[in-house]
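Trying the structure run again after the queue cleared.
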Amino acid sequence: MRPLRALGAAALTVALTLTAACGGANDDTSSGRDGGDGAAITVQAANGTVTLPGVPKRIVSLSPTHTETLFAIGAGPQVVAADEYSDHPANAPKTKLSGFKPNAEAIIGYKPDLVVLSDDMDGIVKALEKVKVPVLLEPAATRIEDAYDEIMDLGTATGRAEQARRLTDDMRRRIQQTVDSAKKAAAPGGEPLTYYHELDEQLHTVTSKTFVGQVYGLFGLRNIADDAQSSAGAYPQLSREHLLKSDPDLVFLADTKCCGQSAATVGERPGWAGLGAVKRKNVVELDDSIASRWGPRLPEFVKVIGDAVQKSSAAQ
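Done. Tokens:
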């Protein structure tokens, strides 16, 4: 999937490869104590029950989302290495380690007492477990609740359970506040706004069944990709004809950094100048990394959508 280019288009790469259910998605199955007294810590993850002898002090993160989470809950000082795409926060110990082509020997070289990842590429979980390196597999969230559950798992695993709980509570509050504000601005009884979320300039997108689609669903938006017939399932590639005929009210670009797309560049595409979203300046340029991750910056993604919904609603 490298031809789709990195970051914004990485959402498509992740979506097509990380489809397993996340650990503890339906209930709080994490247990154990914060480990401050050296007690063992147990977490129910996608790779089964993971038991740590105590709070890990040398964590390797092979997932940009989980790197963000570890720092957001105060476990940043415990992270000794992060993968090549862990670009947030700026002080994350970014390395050449790859989550797409993980190298067990390179990972072990950091002497980790915990490795956190979001996909079991090339059997890396078993390779690390074979040499008794604890691994926490927390796959890409398929539901919004999964995102909160994974943050709690990481909080439990790192002795930061209370910080994780505060973070998820704050995320819920901020998201609900944004959604409520947007709904108040909407005209009573009006038709739902339609939207298109772009992963790359080849018109790969998401349907409402995806994690990203569910985020848009918080606002009652209708996804034009849901009407497309495609063997790609939840991540179809739309035809230009379908997109132009659908004429979405809102266009969201999740390929600004990776692929250099902007309101200006899409306006120059054949036929796009006639789209209502282009004419009414309702083309929204997203931050690729925020729009492709399911961690602590999710409220920021929701806020951008909410602002666009309010702007469009006010213009109707």
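The longest strand covers residues 41-45. Worth checking whether this holds up in the mutant runs.
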